[in-house]
Amino acid sequence: MNDYNLDFSLERDTPVPRSDMTEDELLALVQQFPDNLVYSTELRLRMTQHSRMEEFIDMMDEVEPTSDIVLQQALGYVDMLQDLDLGTAALGQRSAQSIRLLDDLIADNPYDVPAHYARGLNHLYWPQGLKRAERAVQDFAFCIAVEQMNPEWDFTFWPDIYVAFGDALVKSGDAAAGIRAWKEGYAKYPDEEALAERAGADESKAYDIVRRERGIDGFTRPDPAISDIRKLWRR
């Protein structure tokens, strides 16, 4: 699992940070434990609540650049996509900055599943005409291949990846393949509400769902919760 960056046993063994812990205290823990996503995620989400995403990214420049720290910076740029004051050009720049960081992670480790998933999501919310959904399909397909080769591996985002894979296929113009992906995911993860809705869709309904959730003709802001990765270790 380590080769695919899917071992979160350290995070699962880490107590949830106290609510009264200050940002300086959290930053000290991030600096001491840069390979523990619990502390860096808590700090990022707190700063995001106060629209201080750029400050967080700059703060992480002062920390040892482990793969987890680079991932947090990439997610920080995703958090910036919620800024309603940013125009399309600025949003595109933030997404591109996130993708460049994820590209670096994948160049260092081509098997990094979280990086592939995050990069695919970066591509998924842009207009169909830009053909970025096709790139999302490639990233999600890699993740699905890993899941199929290692069905015993526990990764909380597998159902979400099936959802996103089908959405990307629909958005790229292959609704039939997208529906097959949703059905396959639903057969494995029947408790996933998004898969339950999609598995019974026909092609017309499939496009309606993707238009609602990911956008078709224009950029659509992702759900703000998309960068909250705490469910990887909270059970």
Give a verbal description of the structure.
This is Tetratricopeptide repeat protein. With 235 residues, the chain is mostly helical. The chain folds into 2 domains: 1-114, no CATH class; 128-218, no CATH class. Helix content is 62%, strand content 0%. α7 (113-124) packs parallel to α9 (158-171) and α9 runs antiparallel to α10 (175-188). The chain starts with 8 loop residues before the first helix and ends in a 22-residue tail after the last helix.
Protein topology:
Blueprint: H1 9-12, H2 23-32, H3 37-49, H4 53-60, H5 67-80, H6 88-108, H7 113-124, H8 132-149, H9 158-171, H10 175-188, H11 193-199, H12 203-213
Helix pairs in contact: 2-3, 3-5, 4-5, 5-6, 6-7, 7-8, 7-9, 8-9, 9-10, 9-12, 10-11
List its salient traits.
235 residues, mainly alpha, 2 domains, 12 helices, globular
